[in-house]
Write a structure and sequence with these properties.
about 290 residues, mainly alpha, Alpha-lytic protease prodomain-like, Alpha-Beta Plaits, 8 helices, 3 strands
């Protein structure tokens, strides 16, 4: 019986293929037209491709079981992947701005505007479909790497539509200086994307606690089960969650009953949160 394909790996592979196709398409249109905004989109897609490749390997590694050297698993590789992807976007944005300023110094007419616009619209359509699949899988699997990849492609949709609009306006107005201006606007959008991605990926590396909504759900579990608890600590690693806390029990309660109660707490937490590892320290009530 063939091995079941990991949905995260499958959708990450789709992203690699779609980005490869779009790079070739944009390079062709960019060379044909001489448009710096289309070339900037090709550079953006190149960064997306590299990010997709990183995400592909990150999601494969993140699901590797824990071992002697990685007792808590490999989940944080997804956060590392997201940070690297964010830095790559900064590099792409800087290169685009450099090229755009060079073009502003020496304005060149842009040719084949119709083909360029069509390529940008095709790119926006393809990335809309692929980013939707990535977001859906990222949400279902709590994958930071796939979420980062989806964010790349979502921004690519907006920038492609922006470039297409700029090319159409040039077609109508014959104002070719619009081309580098559009390219710079694309770069600024990319920088904004990079900042959001770095923030999302970096902070879990510092073992930041769960967000307030999740902590409230956890609190409701404790209240419903009448758990006397303290010293709750939470953190994330990729699509994995970790929590440890202390509970207080009457000193006369048998050990087996304490153990069973801890199991009940763990069961309720697992029902609410996926991929969570729980450590409970039971201690007697303090006088």
């Amino acid at each position: 019986m063939p091995a079941k394909i990991n949905p995260k790996t499958q959708v990450a592979r789709l992203s690699v293929f779609s980005n490869t196709f779009l790079i070739l398409l944009k390079v062709f249109a960019g060379v044909l037209s001489g448009s710096v905004s289309i070339i900037s989109e090709a550079i953006h897609s190149s960064m997306d491709l590299l990010a997709s490749i990183i995400a592909f390997f990150a999601v494969k590694i993140s699901d590797t079981p824990s071992d002697e050297k990685h007792n808590y698993g490999h989940g944080k590789i997804e956060n590392v992947s997201g940070v690297v992807e964010g830095l790559l976007i900064f590099v792409a944005a800087g290169w685009i701005i450099f090229e755009a300023i060079s073009k502003m110094v020496d304005i060149q007419p842009v040719e084949s505007l119709g083909i360029g616009s069509l390529v940008m619209l095709i790119s926006a359509g393809v990335n809309t479909v692929v980013s939707g699949k990535l977001y859906k899988t990222a949400k279902a699997t709590h994958s930071v790497a796939l979420e980062a990849d989806a964010l790349h492609l979502k921004t690519d949709v907006y920038t492609s539509l922006g470039v297409a609009t700029g090319l159409i306006l040039m077609w109508i107005t014959k104002l070719h200086w619009l081309d580098p201006i559009v390219a710079i606007l694309v770069a600024l959008l990319i920088i904004r994307e990079s900042f959001a991605l770095l923030k999302r990926a970096f902070f879990p590396l510092l073992d930041v606690a769960w967000d307030q909504e999740e902590l409230e759900k956890l609190k409701q579990i404790f209240i419903a089960m009448d758990v006397s608890y303290h010293d709750v600590k939470t953190r994330r690693a990729g699509n994995y969650r970790f929590i440890d806390f202390h509970i207080e029990m009457p000193p006369e309660v048998p050990f087996e009953q304490v153990h069973n109660f801890c199991n009940q707490i763990e069961t309720e937490i697992h029902r609410t949160f996926e991929n969570v590892q729980i450590t409970i320290h039971a201690e007697p009530f303090e006088n």
